[in-house]
Specification:
5-stranded parallel sheet; binds NADP nicotinamide-adenine-dinucleotide phosphate; 515 residues
């Protein structure tokens, strides 16, 4: 039997009492470790975080808590090689893809550490200016933001076991709120190891960071009115969480990051069209293959002017053809595997369904699987589909295949293109390609109500742009409608979720003393 990983709860390592669920190497197929959360005293764990770690964190200033984030980043940096090994083994990722998860998490921590240092020795934040309430100018209202006196529960998806923890924990801890994370079971090892290392290093108050690996049973029942829950995963699980009594009756604040049919749009009538088309092809191929397309932000739909359909198909396919797929331990391999057999089956089924409505422009099945047994490895080549009549096929705008798959579609005019993008019913991100600041800005604004982020790639920023799918801590991550309606990151805006806003109505002298 493989090692049973410990949970960290109530400030100590605790093993589940059951045999545990196995985690596998998705390339080689063998069992790696086991996780189990059965028999844990969840009530004790949540109470410990709320009553012991919460006050300890809130006693510190923002600047002091920013130093905690720096200390966490140093612990992780020192053990980076271990995380790369775990990622390769448990997520099947090549080094560059591991970097997005591991180094992306460390970068997010250090970014929030810098933002927090700038808040200095403050213990609370004021929101806006004082506002007069009546005739007496001495009686006014001032809004304040104070850390919530609860626990932040994170329920995370399988695709970012590293970054997915730290992009949420950095603002929570900076705000002074203890964290309990429940990673997705299939890839829980990396999250567990990172928490283990940080707890063992003793850089945080006891109980400020807990991890529960395995079943989610009973977790939501622990939530009390001042707790918050941040969920990342499928729309189906999101709706179960939304209807839980903790959320529906106790008004526990919830943030949902769900699935999203993100788009790339090549604008027309552009003197720089050839360059823009090349930029689009490069970005689409990268988005399809990075982390084997298992990114919530990955491009799933590609829209080009109808007269450029063939050219775009060729340009993207030519780039995809160069992708070497297989065992991430082989240096020639550029794209590793999906995270599990379940995901492999799900991607194959989803692809088959999309294929029924499209033509195959580049066939992933033509890619040999390098240095791995195709009967065992969850590797799948990138597939570009094409749909000449995007108005008719609702599946193209509804179905998320969480793998290296995208569909190319033609549009007639800008109005048509925008209508097609909006059929995603709210997405995390859209990217625009073209030149001409006015046209790009106008199109970005048109998409701003239905997208959390609009990423504009013009030739002048071809080298410096940060990537369609890369979630930068300075920018908002989330999206309306189908994308879950959540908001994460966005610099210090991220702190709002972990604070309570209140209006204090008092004499101006009292309000001045709030600072
Ligand atoms: P999932 O099945 O919904 O699982 C997500 C998390 O919820 C896992 O930790 C899972 O635990 C847990 N969970 C499952 N059932 C639950 C329940 N009844 N109560 C509480 N928690 C429960 O999603 P997934 O398959 O892991 O993730 C893939 C999806 O996530 C994709 O659709 C992708 O688009 C989306 N995603 C979105 C974002 C974003 O930022 N918007 C980022 C990444 C992924 P177990 O693993 O133990 O079942």
């Amino acid at each position: 039997m493989t090692e049973l990983l410990s949970n960290y709860l109530a400030g100590r390592a605790q093993h589940g009492t059951g045999p545990g669920a196995p985690l596998f190497d998705p390339v080689l197929g063998h069992e790696l470790v086991r996780v189990d959360a059965s028999g844990l005293n969840l009530a004790e764990g949540f109470a410990f975080a709320r009553e012991k770690a919460g006050p300890a964190l809130r006693a510190m200033s923002y600047g002091q808590r920013a130093s905690l984030l720096d200390a966490i980043a140093k612990v992780l940096q020192a053990r980076r090689d271990d995380y790369y090994e775990i990622s390769t083994a448990n997520s099947g990722t090549v080094r560059n893809d591991t970097a997005v998860d591991v180094d992306g998490g460390i970068y997010t921590l250090t970014t929030f550490a810098k933002l927090g240092q700038a808040l200095g020795e403050r213990h609370r934040l004021v929101d806006g200016e004082m506002a007069r309430l009546g005739k007496d100018p001495a009686f006014q209202s001032q809004h304040v933001l104070v850390p919530t006196r609860g626990v932040a529960l994170f329920i995370n998806a399988f695709n970012f076991p590293g970054w997915g923890l730290w992009e949420k924990a950095a603002p929570a801890l900076l705000a002074g709120v203890p964290v309990v994370v429940k990673p997705a079971t299939a890839t829980a090892w990396l999250t567990q190891r990172m928490v283990h290392d940080v707890v063992q290093a003793g850089v945080l108050p006891q109980g400020a960071l807990s991890v529960i690996c395995g079943s989610s049973a009973g977790l939501l029942d622990q939530l009390q009115p001042f707790d918050v829950v941040s969920f990342t995963g499928s729309a189906d699980t999101a709706s179960i969480i939304r209807s839980h009594p903790a959320i529906s009756r106790r008004s526990v604040r919830v943030n949902i990051e769900a699935d999203s049919i993100n788009s790339a749009l090549l604008l027309r009538s552009d003197p720089a069209a050839p360059e823009a088309l090349d930029l689009l092809a490069k970005e689409v191929a990268r988005e399809m293959t990075q982390k084997s397309g298992q990114k919530c932000t990955a491009i799933r739909r590609v829209f080009v002017p109808e007269e450029l359909f063939e050219e775009a198909a060729e340009a993207i396919s030519a780039r995809l053809a160069k992708t070497v797929v297989g065992n991430p331990r082989n240096d020639a391999v550029r794209m590793g595997s999906l995270v599990s057999k379940e995901q492999f089956v799900s991607v194959r089924e989803g692809l088959a369904e999309l294929k029924a409505h499209t033509q195959v422009l580049h066939d992933g099945a033509a890619h040999p699987i390098v240095d791995a047994n195709p009967q065992i490895a969850c590797c799948i080549g990138p597939t570009l589909l094409g749909a000449r009549d995007p108005d008719r096929n609702s599946q193209l705008h509804d179905m998320e295949v969480f793998g290296p798959v995208a569909t190319l579609m033609p549009y007639r005019d800008t109005e048509h293109a925008l209508a097609l993008l909006r059929r995603g019913q709210g997405s995390l991100v859209a990217s625009l390609y073209g030149s001409g600041a006015d046209m790009l800005a106008a199109t970005a604004l048109e998409l701003a109500d239905s997208h959390g982020r609009v990423h504009v790639i013009s030739p002048d920023v071809a080298e410096s742009q940060t990537g369609h799918g890369n979630v930068m801590p300075q920018s908002l991550h989330g999206g309306p409608g189908r994308a879950g309606g959540g908001e994460e990151l966005g610099g210090l805006r991220a702190l709002n979720f972990y604070h309570r806003r209140a209006a204090v109505q008092a004499a101006t002298t009292v309000l001045c003393a709030l600072n």
